[in-house]
């Protein structure tokens, strides 16, 4: 939801979601941008099937294409050319770190088992033209990995926003936007707080939910 809310509104163009899961980000973007063509790629067959079913049941199969496959093998020819925007909510944890979920599907979604951060960034670079944008959410503790990986691959970090559970807590996530072959210069946005102290959503998050669900 947060990732979709921070993508630039597009009057037209093409978007690619790397690791689309059940297809929720393409569905939100299709709702927000009626003229945009969206592709989602997912390496897990079960999730790819769910995503394709969600697309059909929501009546947007003419604008969203779900691809079952490994993003590392994805080429521009497979989706008839480059895209204007790449988004991704990639696996957060390195393959050998922390407890691996016994559920294989969840483990692949959370750990770098099928795709590492470098694979996501390199695929984004390969699929974007010059000045194309890449937007992702990642753990704040891995900020250095993300930003150095983006710059090394030719995607210049241009915008960063830290995401906190509530005021007074450490940032758990960060949202980053980069531009392929962009000029150096990073802007830091205001922190995003998810909850008030009483556990209710903040006004900004509430607005995101209303905008994306209504």
Total number of domains: 1
The CATH class is identified as: Alpha Beta
**Whole-number average pLDDT?**
89
| C-alpha geometry | globular
By CATH, the superfamily comes out as Vaccinia Virus protein VP39
Biggest sheet features: 9 strands, mixed
| CATH fold type | Rossmann fold
Quantity of strands, as a count: 9
- Poorly predicted runs are 97-113
* Helix-strand sequence: HEHEHEEHHEHEEEEH
As a percent range, the share of strand residues is: 15-25%
Please tell me the CATH architecture by its name: 3-Layer(aba) Sandwich
**Alpha-carbon distance between the termini?**
13 Å
> How many H/I helical runs?
7
Compute the CA-based radius of gyration.
Answer: 17 Å
Would you tell me the structural class of the helices and strands? alpha/beta
The helix content is: 25-40%
């Amino acid at each position: 939801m947060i990732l979709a809310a921070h993508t630039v509104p597009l009057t037209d163009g093409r978007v690619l979601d790397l690791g689309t899961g059940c297809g929720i980000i393409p569905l939100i973007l299709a709702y927000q941008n009626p003229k945009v063509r969206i592709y989602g790629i997912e390496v897990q067959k079960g999730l790819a099937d769910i995503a394709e079913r969600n697309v059909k049941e929501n009546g947007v199969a003419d604008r969203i294409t779900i691809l079952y496959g490994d993003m590392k093998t994805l080429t521009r020819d497979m989706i008839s050319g480059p895209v204007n925007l790449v988004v991704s909510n990639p696996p957060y944890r390195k393959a050998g770190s922390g407890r691996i979920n016994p559920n294989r599907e969840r483990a692949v979604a959370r750990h770098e088992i099928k795709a590492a951060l470098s694979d996501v960034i390199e695929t984004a670079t390969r699929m974007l033209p010059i000045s194309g944008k890449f937007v992702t959410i990642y753990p704040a503790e891995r900020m250095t990995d993300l930003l150095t990986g983006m710059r090394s691959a030719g995607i210049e970090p241009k915008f960063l926003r830290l995401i906190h559970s509530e005021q007074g807590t450490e940032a758990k996530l960060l949202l980053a936007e980069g531009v392929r072959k962009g000029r150096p210069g990073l802007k830091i946005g205001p922190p995003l707080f998810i909850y008030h102290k009483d556990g209710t959503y903040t006004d900004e998050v509430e607005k995101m939910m209303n905008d994306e669900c209504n």
